[in-house]
Amino acid sequence: MTATVRAQWMPLVRLGTLLLNDRAVAEEVVQHACETVWKQQPAVGSSAQLGAYLRTSVVNGSRSVGRRRTTAARYLALVRAEQPDGEPPADAELLLDEDRREIRAAVGRLPDRQREVLVLRYWGRLSEADIAQTLDISPGTVKSTAHRAIAALRAHLKEQS
After folding, report:
1. Which pTM value belongs to this model?
2. What is the pLDDT of residues 82-117, one digit of tens each?
3. Element (H, E) at 20
């Protein structure tokens, strides 16, 4: 198990970073997933199965973080609505990679499921079957979700130009 975790650590951190847009939080999610798997010691037949199990754990952990962020964002929006100075921090834009800022922003505005499918498909280079297994959906849902996500990205990026 240790060798698999070592081999999968960086890909899992990248996956979490792309889903959360925050490397530090992604590392925490991956660490928690690895700890949980270590404690449970699932009956996994191979390192590939363990990698898939860890990947699913990271996706689920990222979803949980996303839900907590949404709740916090709603609260902050209420607080900011009461205050006239609801400006974002001055360095917020500097934290983003300038080359791909627009694409990341557009991907970040996609619904969670669409964002997850695109990240797993294009960054993770997973097959439709692997994505379906990771997200616990059918391969047909993977295809239709990816199609809708790409259409939404094209429309948004066309608006921007």
Report:
1. 0.58
2. 555 556 555 455 544 544 667 777 888 899 999 999
3. helix 2-20
CB atoms < 10 A from the CB of 6, how many? Answer: 9
Sequence-distant (6+) residues with CB within 8 A of 33 are 12, 54, 57, 58, 61
Could you tell me the two tokens for 106?
A: 């557009």
Specify the residue for token string 């429309």. Answer: 155
Q: In which residue are the tokens 């379906």 written?
A: 132
d(Cα 124, Cα 114) in Å, to the nearest integer?
14
Report the length, in residues, of the chain.
161
Helix, strand or coil for residue 112?
A: helix
Question: Cα–Cα distance between 80 and 142 in angstroms, integer?
Answer: 37
Tokens read off for 46: 């191979």
Beta strands in the chain (DSSP E): none
Residue with tokens 């999610």: 29
Structure-block tokens of residue 50: 């363990």
Single-letter amino acid code for the residue at 161:
S
Quick check: 110 and 153 in contact, CB under 8 A?
A: yes
